[in-house]
Amino acid sequence: MTTIRQRRAGKGTEAAEDQPSEETNVKPDGKIPPDPPGGKLWNILSKTVGGIVAISLGLLTSVYVATLHENDLWFSNIKEVEREISFRTECGLYYSYYKQMIQAASIQQGLHGLVYDNKTESVRTINILERMNVYQEVFLSILYRILPIQQYLEPVYFYIYTLFGLQAVYVIALYVTSWLLSGTWLSGVLAACWYITNRVDTTRVEFTIPLRENWALPFFAVQIAAITYLLRTHLQPAQERLTLMAVFIATFLFSLTWQFNQFMMLIQALALFILDCLDMLPTAKVTWLYIIQISGLLLVCVLQFFNSMILGSLLISFNVSVLIARTIQKNLKKGGLFNRLGKLILHVLLVLCLTLLINKSIKKILNLESDEHIFKFLKAKFGFGATRDFDANLYLCEEAFGLLPLNTFSRLSSTLLFYTYGFVLSLLTVAAVIVAFRNLSGSNQVQLKDKMEEYTVTLKPDAAYSLVHTVLFGCLALSTMRMKYLWTSHMCVFASFGLCSAELWKLLLKCLHLYTSQRTQVIKYSIPIITLLYISFKFWPGIMDELSELREFYDPDTVELMNWIKSNTPSTAVFAGSMQLLAGVKLCTGRTLTNHPHYEDKNLRERTKQVYQIYAKRSPGEVHGLLRSVGTDYVILEDSICYERRHGRGCRLRDLLDVANGHIMDGLGENDPDLKPSLYPRFCEEIKKNLPSYTMHFTRVFQNKTFHVYKLAKHK
Fold this sequence. Notes:
62% helix; 32 helices; 5-stranded mixed β-sheet; Rossmann fold; 2 domains; mainly alpha
């Protein structure tokens, strides 16, 4: 823990090399005496048992989510087309590249098809490896081709088992992080059990398998575990180098597998920045972590053919700005309280200005606009003006990008996780404030050894990092529901660490004047064990019932559509429709698309809005012209979008299009005064009447209860 020691004149507070209670065991030469032989043997035995338990819980979690997936879909029994349809929306798009690599005549041909892809976006050749984070699909397909497993394991099972296997890595990383923080593997057991019993809020891997976050979050958890170990004291140089290498590898893999990596690591960099400014982390280690983030992201940039969105990321601009500002302000951590606060304010302003300057310069030089929709969304979300921007509103109206629902907390509380988390968070926040104030005050305060010793407040660097990490990612989760999985998994770690932490109980008992070392040890082990027993008795029957519940995939309309496309359209046909459906069309039929769900490209966003005019109030001639301009041969209309009821007025897709086109919305309710009635009826409704003005451009060739497919006339 970071301990408040006697200050030397003119220097900031040092980070203690161990806990206060252990300082008496340090020899005058600074070396720690070796453990007695019996203690060393017990330590080895404890670590061995803890490691076996960690691996067992990881594998059990992997089997658990795999079983839930099988039971929910009867995946082993359904047809191939049904399996592929089960990979909904963008999941299907990503899996299609794995399938494409598997079916290619050779690995070289498969890679060439990805680098020069003309099937994902019609009348355009794009580099999939540059545009999307699909190296994991490439690696997995190559592995499947070279391993002698084709006769025993279907490609789809190799893919999903790999993702379920990564869940084992995820749980083990959470377990190890909690173990490192608390010093006991009992904490890791509690973290893993909380992760499993709160599965609804900690993961969604069993029904969104190929989603990028399911690849990335296990590596992020490994990175956090490595950082936790790195921030420990008394590391040997060789241990520190190996840990830095582990942090780099995990950071690189996390960055390679998820397009939103830069935003997650920016929050992580902010946590490091805050703690470094408050003198709660060793500056040298923080510098290394900044450099690792930059180098990992730049390496991914090279692998993604110098993706401009990475170069223009706020993370790179921020980290470079911090390193420059630190060089300019060399005496940042010297002086008294008000002197340091003044320097700190200047430092923050300097970093902020440099970040904006560097980021704006890079984006201007590269003419970068790929991520502008994200900033438009954030601007509108946090109330910096209303927007009619179609892309921003598309995000704003999605439940996943809304505020975290309140029922999340009731679910987390039912397992005692949220109550424990709040308790630990409150105590550590108070401790952090006290330690930060003492660090900034610069007063020569001596740690007394008499009665005042019981009021000494300490905070280890790894615990301080975990605290700020959970606070910042908690704020992210509260503002954006989709990001809750980054918070809730770490919540399990943080709560279990606090419940098993001798230092935390020692602090609490001293404040209550009830402290004895024996009482602390009893509470440290008894309360976690009682909590584990409560979780087991309350949730084990529910888990067993869940595992025994059998369901089956059923979507006959989509299956009929995909089979019709494969049987009745040429392989070169171009299809237009909703982003979500077209991802499935590409996976199931291999046909060319006009648009798709990977939204991080300005030209694609403009094209999507253009295609979506099929649900707006436009003339048949206009819609036909827009669709033919992107090479469309067939257009798929969905009743679930045309007559949408899932969203309220103002958030239906047709409403977003009406507002963006300057038209008043359907139904009762207010409209902005400058919106005007459209001269034309809604296209998706009117086309079904087979009026001459529509049939001259569109011919219906397929219809079922959900979908209507029209072939476009090719006249000029």
